[in-house]
Design goal:
Number of domains: 2
Structural class: alpha/beta
Helix content: 25-40%
Low-confidence stretches: 318-324
Number of strands: 20
CATH class of the largest domain: Alpha Beta
Largest sheet: 8 strands, parallel, barrel
Number of helices: 12
Mean pLDDT: 86
Distance between the termini: 43 Å
Strand order of the largest sheet: 1-2-3-4-5-6-7-11
């Protein structure tokens, strides 16, 4: 355990907005990754304006948390001048790294912002130590492993690259059905290019089979009456395998989900944070708390879980054939933006009412049941509930809540 005590891997958490970035930081991230308004692979995420990037980096750095910015589209000719301008804009905010897939964008970042680390995205198909050394020799600090690698292969990479080169690997979240995300289904069906940030997730759609000589006869391929979802992967979850991840020599443990809610991000970040800290203290403590980790992970929106490729190639058990829906244990109500005169200020995300019992989710792992005593709207008027999302409310609870605590309620 001596090496572990010296250095735990970084816990890298996604953020879809400035609000979620702050939640990620407070709930245990060592680093967050975000997308600006251009050149990232989540065009449908809220993403960050330049002012929000600046504010987010200041907030994170005050708490010794790093911020990486995605520049991971596969660029076309007409993107390159804009990328150069954009890199020069955002380098002034002192991000800790750029996540890049395209060699041209890599060279622009190297030339225009040489002091900012360059990390190679999983989109670049990084499947062997020769590729890692190639990028290292060009000046990359870190490479994200392809999701198709086993832990055995990652360990072999660690043994064959420079000691100061970092390995980042996904450990939790949605699994793309295509090789390292190189998917053309979205572009083919909708004209929205997954490699330019506009994936519409057709892998989650319901499909039928058409026989060539019967063009109008759609034959369902189904496990039950609801149809089949033949491309629909389970979600990755490695909470039970922290020792194996560390043994493989991974430097950064990455959570997928740059389009996820604050509740999801808080839940996953908090759980992995505690698992890592417990393991640092002792393997016995980590193992003894396993049921708690698994219970907490199941509290946020997820599909069924798999270990992906880490212990060998996935089989039919890795797919979900009968539906494309998420499991959902809790509804996100909002987070505590401030505490004023014993009332919490929140922007409501979903409906709740006076007299209802909800939960306060705290960064330290506590989940407190609390009763809603009163609700005031933005005009200071007492209301029984606020039926519309995004209403500003002042709420009195019978338990103490602090700034950035999450409010949630169990699904009925």
């Amino acid at each position: 355990m001596s090496d572990i005590k010296k250095k735990l891997p970084e816990l890298l958490v996604p953020a879809s907005s400035l609000e979620v970035l702050k939640i990620a930081v407070v709930f245990g991230a060592d680093a967050v990754y975000i997308g600006g308004e251009a050149f990232g692979l989540r065009a449908k995420a809220k993403n960050f304006s330049n002012e929000e990037i600046k504010e987010g980096i200041i907030f994170a750095h005050e708490k010794n948390v790093k911020v990486y910015i995605t520049l991971n589209i596969l660029a076309h000719n007409n993107d390159l001048n804009e990328v150069k301008l954009y890199v020069n804009e955002i380098k002034e905010f002192n991000p800790d790294g750029f996540i890049i897939a395209d060699p041209a964008i890599f060279m622009i970042a190297k030339e225009e912002a040489p002091d900012i680390e360059r990390h190679i995205s999983t989109q670049a198909n990084n499947t062997n130590f020769g590729t890692f050394n190639f990028w290292y020799n060009l000046g990359a600090k870190r490479v994200v492993t392809a999701r198709e690698l086993s832990l055995k292969e990652i360990k072999e990479i660690r043994e064959n690259i420079p000691e100061d080169m970092e390995i980042e690997s996904f450990i939790h979240g949605a699994m793309c059905i295509s090789y390292s995300g190189r998917c053309l289904l979205s572009n083919f069906f909708t004209g929205r290019d997954a490699n330019r940030g506009e994936c519409t997730h057709p892998c989650r759609w319901k499909y039928s089979v058409v026989e060539e000589t019967r063009p109008n006869e759609y034959m369902p391929v189904y496990e039950n009456e609801r149809g089949t979802y033949i491309f629909n992967s389970k979600d990755l979850c490695m909470i039970e395998y922290i020792p194996e991840l560390l043994d493989a020599g991974i430097d950064s443990l990455k959570i997928e989900g740059r389009m996820k809610s604050a509740l999801y991000v808080a839940t996953v970040a908090r759980t992995y944070r505690k698992a890592l800290d417990d393991y640092k203290e002792s393997k016995e403590k980590y193992l003894s708390n396993m049921n708690w980790y698994k219970d907490q992970i199941s509290d946020c929106t997820y599909r069924q879980f798999t270990t992906g490729f880490y212990f060998g190639k996935p089989n039919e058990e890795t797919q979900i054939y009968d539906n494309n829906t998420y499991c959902k244990e809790y509804t996100y109500l909002g987070f505590v933006e401030d505490v004023i005169d014993e009332k919490i200020k929140i922007t409501q995300k979903n409906k709740f009412s006076v007299g209802e019992v909800i939960e306060i989710m705290k960064p330290n792992g506590e989940n407190l049941q609390t009763k809603v005593i009163s609700i005031l709207n933005e005009d200071g008027e007492e209301v029984e509930s606020a039926p519309h999302p995004k209403e500003l409310l002042y709420v009195k609870l019978d338990k103490t809540a602090s700034k950035y605590d999450i409010l949630r309620k169990p699904e009925e």
